[in-house]
Amino acid sequence: MYGIIATWRMALEGITEAEHMLKDGATASDAIEMAIRAVEDFEYYKSVGYGGLPNEDMEVELDAAWMDGDDLSIGAVASIKDFANPVSIARLLSREPVNNMLVGAGAEKYAHKMGFERKNMLTERAKIHYHNRKKEVQELELKPYSGHDTVGMVDLDSQGSMVAATSTSGLFMKRAGRVGDSPISGSGFYVDSAIGGATATGLGEDLMKGCLSYEIVRLMGEGLHPQEACEKAVQDFDKVLKARRGKAGDLSLVAMNNKGEWGCATNIEGFSFAVATETQEPTVFLVKFDENGRQYFEKASDEWMDNYMKTRTAPLVRK
């Protein structure tokens, strides 16, 4: 059995190619790296990689992480600028005996030393988004923060190995140096090939309060199906945050166990995810809620899929 699951519709093209690779016997590591790089390289996805939305100083700072479920190796970078494909840098860091998480200038120095591609990650579209948001904040008193759609993936290869990885540009107009949950083990991601893996997207400041990716893997280890584990972890922590703090930020997680079974849970409307397995063709699902607040999944329609891409590639005008 093999499979791959990812947060958001933007992962579809990557996991489609990854599914072909896994079917042909590729390792979980090679398949997931290729799938995330596909998202990082597509400039119209404004929350990851090239085209990612900038911080308050109009600089694109990227976070990424990597975890090997076989030996629990972890690599991560945070607040790295001017390098393409931070997920690949994180993968290489996971092979180091120490110094597995690097930030800012240190991460950039390492990437340069190891021969990774330097690239100006700030696109013209991102500049327009930035200037438009600054104007909206001033004129409409809107909050600057929006856009925290991390791409996170978990995959399983036919040899039983599992990997989890993430990549994001973080909150739009965040403070320089801000780091969310995405590169933090147990919060943005966690995987153990003996059990399964999980990965998160949403408001990092709240996701980090609950270490939800680790909690889902722990629950799967106790025998819960990935769907049950996701729902329990998200629903329980959503209640905790609302009881303690009066509100809860966006919490959305996907998971897969070492049998290729998968699950997803969220506390927001409009969340999408993509999944492919040996028995499930690459598919985008939308999370819906019934009148009793119970979530269910609906396959994205052709109309929804067409509108998704048209919206993201539509020309922008500076206000």
Q: Care to describe what's here?
A:
The chain is of the alpha+beta class. It has a single domain (3-59, 122-313), classed as Glutamine Phosphoribosylpyrophosphate, subunit 1, domain 1. The protein is 34% helix and 24% strand. It contains nine helices and 13 strands. The strands form two sheets. A nine-stranded mixed β-sheet has the order 4-3-2-6-5-1-11-12-13. A four-stranded antiparallel β-sheet has the order 7-8-9-10, covered by helices on one side. It is globular and about 50 Å long. The N and C termini lie far apart (51 Å). GO terms for molecular function: hydrolase activity, acting on carbon-nitrogen (but not peptide) bonds, in linear amides; peptidase activity. One of its GO terms (cellular component) is cytoplasm. The record marks 149-150 as: Cleavage. The active site is at residue 150.
Layout of strands and helices, then pairs:
Blueprint: E1 3-7, H1 12-23, H2 28-40, E2 62-68, E3 74-80, H3 86-93, E4 101-103, H4 104-113, H5 124-140, E5 151-156, E6 162-168, E7 189-192, E8 196-202, H6 204-210, H7 212-221, H8 226-245, E9 251-257, E10 262-266, E11 272-277, E12 283-289, E13 295-299, H9 302-313
Parallel strand pairs: 3-4
Antiparallel strand pairs: 1-5, 1-11, 2-3, 2-6, 5-6, 7-8, 8-9, 9-10, 11-12, 12-13
Helix pairs in contact: 1-2, 2-3, 7-8
GO biological process, one term: proteolysis
Keywords: Autocatalytic cleavage, Hydrolase, Protease
Active site: 150 (nucleophile)
